[in-house]
């Protein structure tokens, strides 16, 4: 990436360099960088930064000349404090940002309110390296802070408004760093890192330093609280992530209530200058120390800001950027610091002569990188997905850049396809792109993607493209005419252009078809129909149906049938109300083969509709379609039999002649033709069976008696129609008959079969009779209910008398009709037997059974 060496360059410019192996990497950086300028630039020209702390609202910068500056987020100075004449070692702010604690190399410690007069001032006889305020220092109950020099001191203001001092730790060298989070204070000295619980007043851990050979003043410890219980420790090349946990009550004994578990510990390649959390990852500032024997000081490597993913015993590098900070070749590991803002993902890299701010890249930055790498499609997709969140980019402009890129690379089809998505409803942009494609000779590429729905360009645009196709690509021109609605362009102008081209090539079927389609759009259907018929185009029938052109085809029926008989006849028969049957027959008079096709389909649909043409059809069937002649003669009831017989006899159509003779009643002559001309005994037998005439059977036997093959056929087939004995008696003695034994066996078998069938039928009849008799008996044995609700069918009085003590007689028939005995007439033909008058009159019901109830 580009370096920034001069102060006047824009802060937004990147000033990170990847290593030589990564110069051509396609991996997108995770962070973006800019210098903290404005007032900071002026401060660092005459002074050097020694420390800085970050609040969500402002920054506090300490210098080597003992000054503290309060800055806004842009680096403008809002306040200045003259603290000392020597280096400021550490600045601490409470969570509210209302109080600040400062310590310096000459032993001065100051704690004061930024908006109040209260404060604490003290001078120590040794350098104070660290100071930390209670996070809730602004609240009256938490007026506490700690300082770190030779010992760690806790200052607490009592109720008398006096400061009380408590030594928390001493005897292990200089305290170099202190960080306070919630109730936990973490500090580092020469031997390691300790954590103190201010609520229980107990020290809960001691994390030893791994590499004691490194000077702690040259490679200081970095401490950072990720949350209220997670501490990140970086020292030299070692990183440890420590989690403070509550101890179970059963494990307490004399131990502190909390303990520390190291959940991750690993080594890094370079020396750590600072650490900060980024969700579940770490941002680490590294000092890269080169071998001084092989490299001059001025070429010492730049510091690196890496994002790493920690694991229990190792880590994975996510990204790495080498920072070109001012005067980096003069700096040591102790000169760099890394601070972060918890409210935002902002990371401040502090060096003596430069302060750099690292931010997480947003969607605009992501799109910038994609455009820089010429990944236009991904950039466009990212912009479309996040169009509500991007601020510096416009989706359409990115799309236009993508189109330009595709055009420059010669991918015209892809560029035209993207126009449909990118240009949307912007007609001006559409027209500009069309003219650009015309300039580069690629109108064909964009033609299929032009708007053609409710949104349309000027007709001249579409006509220009059609003319372009007409010059060089007739097929493409025809495709556009089919796909584009006729309202997009001036139809007459295109018709004239096609006509001009046809003068040079009058037989071109593509142009003729297209001209027919244009005539159709222009509602000049007669001209379109002429072209379609000349070309024998399959759409001619659709055109006729769609636009009701039947009046225009009355004189073109022969052409239509020459093109496709089946479709033409179906169309004519389906539209008899528009083209009469007589008109069609008249047009087809000179083409009898076509007339036959038409009349045959007409007859298939309705045997009676074309009856006046049945006589004509006999000759047409005989000439062009003999297989369908016999079915026609069988189904037609309107054809003259004499005329048909004459034609069939002239052409020697035996089967048809036999049918006609039998239909005219001359069955003997028909049978004679079958036997003499067809010599087909099976047909003769079948014919005799159909007629079921004893005289025909006699003629058939008489004709066959001297022909052994005929006798065999008769023996095999007449068993169920004629008594075979009659035939057998008439066979001459000594005549050889083929398969006689098999024929006799078949006769006997058929006879046995008949006997079995009769016996079976008899059994079924007897069983059914018995079943019905039993059913009738059960029915007649049933009782019949007689009560006050029943009436006499004769007098219509109540069947039962009101006085049941008096004797009475009632007659009940099995048909359920009831009578008073005195209301019935006297017995009929059979003495003593009476019948139901009602059922007898209707001639139904048994009416013979009589039940008498007497009392």
Q: Give the overall pLDDT as a whole number.
A: 81
User: Which range best describes the helical content: under 10%, 10-25%, 25-40%, 40-55%, 55-70% or over 70%?
Assistant: 25-40%
Largest pleated sheet: 5 strands, antiparallel
CATH topology of the domain at 362-457: Serine Threonine Protein Phosphatase 5, Tetratricopeptide repeat
Number of distinct beta strands: 32
Beta-strand share of residues: 15-25%
CATH architecture of the domain at 362-457: Alpha Horseshoe
Determine the N-to-C terminus distance: 131 Å
Secondary-structure-derived class:
alpha+beta
Family: Belongs to the VPS41 family.
Protein name: Vacuolar protein sorting-associated protein 41 homolog
GO molecular function, one term: zinc ion binding
CHCR repeats: 569-713
Task: Describe the secondary structure blueprint for this structure.
Blueprint (H helix, E strand, L loop, with lengths): L15 E2 L13 E5 L3 H8 L2 E6 L4 E5 L3 E5 L5 E6 L5 E6 L5 E6 L3 E6 L5 E5 L6 E4 L10 E5 L2 E7 L5 E8 L6 E5 L2 E5 L3 E6 L4 E7 L13 E4 L4 E6 L2 E9 L11 E10 L3 E8 L2 E7 L16 E7 L4 E9 L13 E5 L4 E6 L2 E7 L2 H10 L3 H10 L9 H14 L3 H11 L4 H13 L3 H5 L11 H14 L1 H10 L7 H14 L4 H13 L3 H11 L4 H8 L9 H7 L1 H10 L6 H7 L4 H14 L8 H11 L4 H7 L5 H10 L3 H10 L3 H12 L2 H11 L2 H11 L3 H10 L6 H7 L9 H42 L27 E5 L4 E3 L16 H6 L7 E5 L1
Helix pairs in contact: 2-3, 3-4, 4-5, 8-9, 8-10, 9-11, 10-11, 11-12, 12-13, 14-15, 15-17, 17-18, 18-20, 19-21, 20-21, 21-22, 22-23, 22-24, 25-27
